[in-house]
Amino acid sequence: MTFILGTRGSALALTQSGMAADQIAAAGNFEVELRTVRTEGDVLTGPLSQMGGTGVFAATLRTRVLDGSVDFAVHSLKDLPTAPCPGLVVAGIPEREDPRDALIARDGLTLEKLPAGARIGTGSPRRAAQLRLIRPDIEIVDIRGNVGTRLARVAGFESYGNQSTPAGDCDAVVLAASGLRRLGFEETVTDYLDPTQMLPAAGQGALALEVRESDVEKATELAEAIRAVDHAPTRWAVTAERALLARLEAGCAAPVGTFARLEEQTLVLDAVVANPDGSESLRHQATTSDLSADGAKTLGEKLADELLSMGAARLANLTL
């Protein structure tokens, strides 16, 4: 039997989907075929924060699963809206890749060593705000595009792009370490930004395997194979992060970073809410010993409520 996996057509999406397909095929002892789906986010060219957020990458894939064009889909979890999609279930979340942000800079420079006035490219308000908190003397350049296109914006890395896009006009860019690792581009990284310094996006580095709810209810061969690759510690962590984001009603346009991890038998969740210009921030932590999906969700909501009581809504222009 062969199942059809829907995926975006970018190099990173195809790589991630191929990895997921191999895991699920091995777990279910069946074949998985990739089918490329062109999403709204692939067509539009404006800043993501002005296009309805990263959910524009997921919507078309979800429609294809629901209408039966494909059997399931793989998403970068950070691109998946926190609101559930009726008729679909995230049945599997494999073990998370490196959740950190990574700096790729000219001349091997670190964030600390970049000169005053350095131009750093990012399309993420979260990254921009935290970069300004750390280095208020740098200039943020709004960029988007695939990984190669973004790398080519850095002086000395022009060969990663193509002649039709800007190149070499930035001193550095910030990208997800997970994507660089999956594509084999680790050698480009000049500085890994630890979560103690810069908190990632909710779900960064994790993949979501989404299937029809009816498959889960019937415990079909596909649904059971997807569930077999689920990694409980990763699911707890991203559940806490996404619950915090949902409680804050913060999308990709909000400068909110969060990261959860298991320390012995305790789930630890950190979050930061910043002013978009990086002039102010709130950072707080909460923990729980309830290692379950419900416990993780409660943890995220609790930390969000604490941040709101400290003035997070005003700081980040959240609309509650």
Automatic annotation (TrEMBL):
InterPro entries, per database record: HemC, Porphobilin_deaminase_cofac_BS, Porphobilin_deaminase_N, Porphobilinogen_deaminase_C, Porphobilinogen_deaminase_C_sf
Gene Ontology annotations for the cellular component aspect, listed alphabetically: cytoplasm
Keywords: Porphyrin biosynthesis, Transferase
Pfam family, one: Porphobil_deamC
Cofactor(s) this protein requires: dipyrromethane
EC number(s) per entry: 2.5.1.61
UniProt catalytic activity: 4 porphobilinogen + H2O = hydroxymethylbilane + 4 NH4(+)
UniProt-recorded Gene Ontology molecular function terms: hydroxymethylbilane synthase activity
Co-factor binding comment: Binds 1 dipyrromethane group covalently.
Entry-annotated residues carrying S-(dipyrrolylmethanemethyl)cysteine: 252
Domain Porphobilinogen deaminase N-terminal: 4-217
Coiled coil, from the record: none
GO biological process, any: protoporphyrinogen IX biosynthetic process
Residue ranges constituting the Porphobilinogen deaminase C-terminal domain according to the UniProt record: 237-308
Enzyme category, top tier: transferase
Record carries keyword Protein biosynthesis: no
Note: The porphobilinogen subunits are added to the dipyrromethane group.
Family: Belongs to the HMBS family.
Function: Tetrapolymerization of the monopyrrole PBG into the hydroxymethylbilane pre-uroporphyrinogen in several discrete steps.
Subunit structure: Monomer.
Protein name: Porphobilinogen deaminase
Organismal lineage: Bacteria, Bacillati, Actinomycetota, Actinomycetes, Micrococcales
Gene name of the record: hemC
